[in-house]
């Protein structure tokens, strides 16, 4: 069977017809990439993957990204450093206390962002697999940055054309008051500069590339640049550009970080929530 797509409002799609546990054929890779060019978020239901299967699936779609594990090594629950532990669970398998260092990462994920936009190469596809979901809340939302660009008024399109923003790994942590980093850690991932307006090389669509990692607009004062970034992010994340995903165990949701931003929604940190993420790096065209 080949890939089936059922559009979800306003831009995502539910995908089926391919067993993600099995090696992908070159044709299936092309079908998935094509669907991602169009929808930017694909939701696969009932596809619980083992760690090995998730890594194999991600590798078929590009080189793997390590994200923030470059910065903070430390003990890890998974067999692969390339699997990000998107959970409130400690290495010993117990739910972390609210004061535990891990929880701030959970909170930071509730700010609108694009994975690894603070580095070059940045993340292309993120593939998040649901292992344990809380009884209430903990949805993930996605906003389409192509729809956001298209909806900008002409004066704004002119204003942002040619501007570049600096994206810094720890900006979201600083915003949350998590400032306990050594100078070495602060400097180990220097900010990455990205154009605010980008053209997707495959679909030809324009993208308003914003998110919480963006902390400065080059050539503008800090205050004016930050205000512009806040305004643009507010514009980009209006309800009409947002798909909200309600997790079920066994879901695999994948998204294109170059065309969307995402955030987790509130859940009670006393409840267990476990997701596992594999991420590919963008390969420049
Ligand atoms: C991520 C992320 C949000 C969530 O996995 O990259 O931001 O809802 N997750 O857990
Ligand atoms: Mn993320």
TrEMBL record:
Superkingdom, taxonomy of origin: Bacteria
Coiled-coil annotated spans: none
Residues in TauD/TfdA-like domain copies: 5-279
Entry keyword annotation includes Oxidoreductase: yes
Gene3D superfamilies (alphabetical): Clavaminate synthase-like
Keyword annotations of the record: Dioxygenase, Iron, Metal-binding, Oxidoreductase
Entry's Gene Ontology molecular function annotations: 2-oxoglutarate-dependent dioxygenase activity; metal ion binding
Family from the record: Belongs to the TfdA dioxygenase family.
UniProt protein name: TauD/TfdA family dioxygenase
């Amino acid at each position: 069977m080949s890939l089936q797509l059922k559009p979800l409002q306003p831009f995502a799609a539910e995908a089926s017809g391919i067993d993600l546990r099995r090696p992908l054929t070159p044709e299936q890779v092309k079908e998935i990439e094509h669907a991602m060019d169009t929808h930017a978020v694909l939701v696969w239901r009932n596809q619980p993957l083992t760690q090995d299967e998730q890594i194999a699936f991600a590798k078929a779609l590009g080189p793997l990204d390590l994200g923030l594990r470059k910065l903070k090594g430390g003990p890890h629950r998974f067999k692969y450093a390339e699997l990000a532990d998107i959970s409130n669970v400690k290495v010993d398998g117990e739910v972390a206390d609210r004061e535990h260092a891990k929880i701030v990462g959970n909170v930071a994920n509730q700010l609108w962002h694009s994975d690894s936009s603070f580095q070059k190469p940045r993340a292309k596809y993120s593939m998040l697999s649901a292992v344990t979901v809380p009884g209430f809340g903990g949805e993930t939302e996605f906003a389409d940055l192509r729809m956001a660009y298209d909806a900008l008024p002409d004066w704004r399109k002119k204003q942002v054309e040619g501007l570049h923003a600096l994206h810094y790994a720890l900006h979201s942590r600083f915003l949350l008051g998590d400032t306990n980093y050594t100078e070495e850690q602060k400097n180990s991932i220097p900010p990455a500069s990205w154009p605010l307006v980008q053209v997707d090389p495959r679909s030809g669509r324009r993208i308003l590339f914003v998110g919480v990692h963006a902390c400065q607009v080059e050539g503008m004062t800090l205050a004016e640049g930050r205000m512009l970034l806040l305004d643009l992010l507010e514009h980009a994340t209006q309800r009409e550009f947002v798909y909200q995903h309600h997790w079920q165990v066994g879901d695999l949701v994948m998204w294109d970080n170059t065309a969307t931003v995402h955030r987790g929604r509130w859940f009670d940190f006393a409840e267990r929530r476990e997701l596992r993420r594999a991420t590919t790096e963008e390969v420049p065209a």
